[in-house]
Amino acid sequence: MISVFYEHNSSVDTLYKVAEKIILHLYGHGDTDNLGIGDLRYNLFTASAAAFKKEVVLASLPPTESSLREHTKRVYYQIQIWLGNTLNAEEWGWRKTLFMMLPTMSTSDPAPQELIEKVFCGCKTNCTSARCSCKKSGLKCNQFCKSCYGQSCDNATITEIVLEDDNPINDNDDDEREYDCEEDDEEEEEGIRPGNCIL
């Protein structure tokens, strides 16, 4: 079943079907159930909500279809790299930023926006404890949180930080700035750039 990950020209759909079967088996459902990953998430959510009659820990649910698809692409990419095959990382679950490659976690929201808006916290601290309802639900804090607004806590999403550059620096462009660099190691003064280069 997993041999498809070792083939050089496997399609994302073929890989996803195998990954979905693996997840279904991990959650105790065999091939005879005819469930998709979305159906499994829904069944587990409703069963746990009915059984416990309290908050459901969303992190205990299987991944969303979009999240599993992106993870599957990254697994395939890594295996192909180990096998010596070259693939474009941006086509296999990674995105390029100004400084590094970051995994694409999902191409869709983990739940409908109406539901996400109902999960928020009222923490007065950095949202690090298990009392944070966002963290307990397996979600990052968002703009609906009462104190942190999804920006000023340890559970805030880092994707809000601008990491992508719409105008990448071209090494062939002539830099109009001129630098006059000093040879000695004087202390940095106003107008002197690090490395003692005056702009």
Which keywords apply here?
199 residues; 3-stranded antiparallel β-sheet; 2 domains
Oligomer: single chain
Secondary structure class reads mainly alpha
- Beta-strand residue percentage: 5-15%
User: What characteristic shape results from the CA principal axes?
Assistant: flat
Please estimate the helix content: 25-40%
- The SSE string, one letter per element, is HHHEEHHEEE
Total strands: the figure is 5
Topology:
Layout: H1 12-26, H2 37-52, H3 65-82, E1 94-96, E2 101-103, H4 113-116, H5 133-136, E3 180-181, E4 192-193, E5 197-198
Antiparallel strand pairs: 1-2, 3-5, 4-5
Question: What can you tell me about this protein's structure?
Answer:
- This is Tesmin/TSO1-like CXC domain-containing protein.
- With 199 residues, the protein is mainly α.
- It folds into two domains: 1-108, no CATH class; 111-165, no CATH class.
- The protein has five helices and five strands; from the N terminus they run H-H-H-E-E-H-H-E-E-E.
- It has helices at residues 12-26, 37-52, 65-82, 113-116, 133-136, and strands at 94-96, 101-103, 180-181, 192-193, 197-198.
- A hairpin with a 3-residue loop joins strand 4 (192-193) and strand 5 (197-198).
- The protein is flat and about 50 Å long.
Please give a quick description of this structure.
The protein folds into 2 domains: 1-108, no CATH class; 111-165, no CATH class. 29% of the residues lie in helices and 6% in strands.
